[in-house]
Every structure is written in C-alpha cells, then in structure tokens.
Amino acid sequence: MNYMKRVDAHETTLKGYLGIESDIGELTIPFSQRPYEWNKAEVERLFNDLVSLYYDDENIHMLNFFTLSGEGGMTKIFDGQQRTITSLLIVGVFIKKLNSRGLLEAAKQLHNQYIEKVEYISDDGNIRKLRFDDKETENFFYKLLSIKNDVDLDSKNYENETIKTFITNFNLITQLLDRFIDKNDLNRDEIRKMVNRILTATNLITIKTDTDELAMAMFESLNNTGKQLENYYVLKNDLVIALEEKAVKDKWNEIESNLANFDQSDFLVAFATVLTGKSTKKNALSKIYTKYSKQNRKEMIDLLNILLAASEKYLHLRNPAQLTDYKDRTAYDNYRENISNLNLFIKKQQLPLLLAAMMKGYSLSNINEIATHLLNIGIRNLYFEEKRANTIEILIADLANDIYTETKSIKDVLNVLKKEALSDSEVKEAIKGKIVKRGQAEKNLKFILRETYNTTDLQRELKIRDNLSEIHYEHILPKRPSQNSQWIKDFSVEEEREIYTSKVGNATLLLDKINTNISNKDFKDKKLRYKESHIPENKNIANHKKWTTIEIENRTTEIAEKIITYLNELTN
Hints:
Elements: E1 7-13, H1 14-18, E2 27-28, H2 40-51, E3 61-69, E4 76-79, H3 81-100, H4 104-115, E5 116-122, E6 125-128, E7 130-131, H5 135-144, H6 161-184, H7 188-201, E8 202-209, H8 212-222, H9 231-243, H10 245-258, H11 264-276, H12 284-288, H13 297-318, H14 329-345, H15 351-359, H16 364-384, H17 393-404, H18 410-420, H19 424-433, H20 440-456, E9 471-475, H21 486-490, H22 494-501, E10 507-511, H23 523-530, H24 536-542, H25 549-571
Helix pairs in contact: 2-6, 3-4, 3-6, 3-7, 5-6, 9-10, 10-13, 11-15, 11-17, 13-15, 14-16, 15-16, 15-17, 16-18, 16-25, 19-25, 20-25, 23-24
C-alpha cells in the first residue's frame, strides 16, 4: 500500500530545491503566509553568504530548514518563503548579467531550469517554479525575472507593497553583484561558474508534511533562526486551518486593506488589549486565544468577524478621513482635529481606549470627550512633566477593557482620566522648569501656544487658524544673537543664555507676514514688529522696555496660568 509519510525530511542543494524539474517541482505560497518583506540587511547577508562560495571550492553553505506541505496535491511553503524568493531574485540577476555579457544561451538555460519553463505550456500557462496567491504579484515577479529588461524599476511607481519589495531587493542584488564582479574583475565565464557554484554548494533540508496544520506546527517548533513569524500572520494561518481558506480569504483581504498603511502588530496589540487588558507584541496572540479557542470553529468564525470590524474602526482611528459614515458634521470635524492633536503628544498608548469606544459604538461626541481628556494628560503629564508614555499604558489598557466589557460608563472613564492628569499646581511648576528642546518639542509648544492664545486672548472670529507649519515659533531671546548685540551684554554667560532661550516664557508665535528679518535683532527692534501682530500676547511682550532673565521668568509664570486655563477649558 502506497502512502505519504506524515513527515518526510531530505537534504538537498539549492539546485535541487529550485529546479523546476526536480522532485520538489513547483512551489506554492499559501494565502496564509505573510508577504515578501525581507529588508536590505537580510538580503545582503544571504547574498554575501552565497557569493563567498566562489572563493571556496570545498565548503558548502547551509540554508537551513524549509518546511513544506503536500496537502491538496500541491507543495506549499510554510517556512522559507523569504529565502526562496530572494534566492530566485539572485538567480534572476545572474541570468540578466550573463545575457548582458553575451551569454544568451546560458541565460536561457538557467531561466528554463530555475525560473520559468517557457517551451512547455501547462493549463496555467508557462511552468513556473513559484506560484503566488495573488496573480498580479506573480505575473510581475516573472516579468521582473524575464531575460528581457523591460520593467520599470522605480518602486515609487507601484502601489503593491510586495512588488515594491521585489524591485527594491532586485535593484540591491544587482548593485551587490556589479560591485562583486568589479572588485574581483570577473569575466563572463567566471560569472557563470559562480552562479553554478552557488546552486550546487548551497545545501538545505526540506521537511515535507502531509497536512498544512502539521507543516505550521513543524515550523513553529523549528523556527529558532532568522526572523520570528509575527503573531499577525500566525493568526491568519490559524484561521485558515480552522475555517479553510475559502471562508477566510475575502474577509482577511478586507482586514489587510484596512491595515495596509499601518503596522499590523500595533493593531493586534490594541485589539488584544481591548479584549483582555494590557497586552504586548509578544503575548497579544496568546491573550486573544484566552477568549477564542482555536479548536472551536464557531469561536474562530466570531474572531474573524470581530477582527474585520475592529480593523475598520482602527482605520478610522488612524486615518479619520476614511470615516465617512457620520451624522454630525461638527462632531466629525472635531474628531479629525482631536485625533491629529492627540498624535502630537501620545503616539500609541491611546489606541486601545479609542478603539474600544469605537467598537462599542460610542458617539463621536463621546469619543471626542475621551480624546480631549487624553490630550490633557499628554500635555500635562507627558509634555510638561516629561513622564514616560508607558506610565499611562496600564491605566488606558484597563479602561479600554472596561469599555469593551461594559464595566465602566463613559462618565466613569472620563473621571478616571481626569484624576490621572497632573494638578494645576504641579503643571505650573513643571512649566516654570521646562527647557524646550529643538525639534518636536518646539512643534508641540507651538501647538500649545496657538491653542492658549485662541482660548485666553482672542475672540472667536480672530482665532489663529493657520496650520502649525505656517506659524513661526519665535525665540524672543534669539538662539544665535550677534556678538555686538544687546543680547550678549544682557546674557553674558553663554550657558545661562542657552537655558533662558529655551524657557517657555521666551517663546511666542508669529505669522509669516510679519516674520521678515527680525529673528536675531535686538529687543528694541523686535518689539516694533511685535506691535504689528494681531495676537494680543505679542503686543503685551512689546510693552516691555527690555527682555532679560527677569522678564522671561515673569512671563513664564504668566503664560503658565494661561496654559492651565486652556487645559481646563479643554476638558470642561
């Protein structure tokens, strides 16, 4: 009786693995696998390992384990996709190089042996070594590796991320090979010898199982080298095994589309946190499986559906322009503004809480309330007090789970956030001691000053509505005063001058139209321009006769009071 072993392991060469007519034959990348995403460091490392064989006629290079499945009559790759594609790209670059050096027949022979057998046509077109789940991706891959050079190699001209990676790595391998050939002054016969040496002296072990599920289990037990498979793609594979590809594919493609421009692991952490409380990239999947069993088909169907719904909400959270189904235009405009503002001060910690609120169907008005309380914490605790962002992670994670499990109301959540924010007196002291570093810190203070001026000094119709990029952040005491200026006389100690230059009280805002050639002038000249500003705060600054340490300290205290007024209005 003939039957396939449950697990069949063989040692072979890269020639035997990539050969179209070898025992392995065509390879297929299953839908469940992550896309091709090797970066420069990984490609360079493999290339250098392989070409080093040219110098050594005795040793081999071990390419490690490749885990395959024979379920359904196809040979599917469960571990080794990245190495397989990169190896084919390397062979493809050699083929083009041989063709460019006049060895067309040698190039054709290699192409027919390892890339695509064009002389023989199967029901699915040319016999190809590697089959992709997505036909657009597959067709481009073989166009890229064709002997002809008729492909646009500028990755910026493509939207498909996998195709972009193909091009980036193809160009990189081309550069690496050109450099190696030039350095070693290789002729065309030596180039042909080198690619043959790579194919015959590179060894690997294939582990072929009779089911996809066993292949995945083998992969997880053997994957102790290279890049660890991300939980996101493990989850995808688990769903395919539990529900079969047909039931998963369309919904997962929607999930992929929703998350296309974001780090999927960030989404998975936020999603797991909503479900179970504080989660990390390392434990997100295991925490999800405390709520949904891989062995329960109904629960896996529920998980797939809730993942799809959550990915859509996550898209609306990360890109508010994609939220088009709203009833209240004012609430929507506020939502877009709040998300943008919040991202200035908190990068990721807020995601689970806002995601939970969106998943539970909170109104945009309620989500805006949560966002403004988070912004208040971001400005008070993280910006002025300079606490680390992870100090609020557990609190926000708990609140996210409380919203999802409906153990806290919106009022309860807002009260907790309000208590977490530093008190007015604490913030005032933090502002007085704050040294504003260049870069993002100045951009953030620019935002705070704009909102403060709008709240405390300007009438509604006179609000500063300019984008932050169109507003000039002005150091009243300049960063680099002229050596013969009054500034040097008033601030003769350089270290002291640097400190006072970076005080909150030394900063104000100017609009471009009055920001011509005043930055480094003495105060007596600057104040004349400040008087032209429609911002009352600048007119107040212009009323001072001089600008010394005393004026900066006093204004820091005064502006601190105004900032606190703005923050209190923000949450009330």
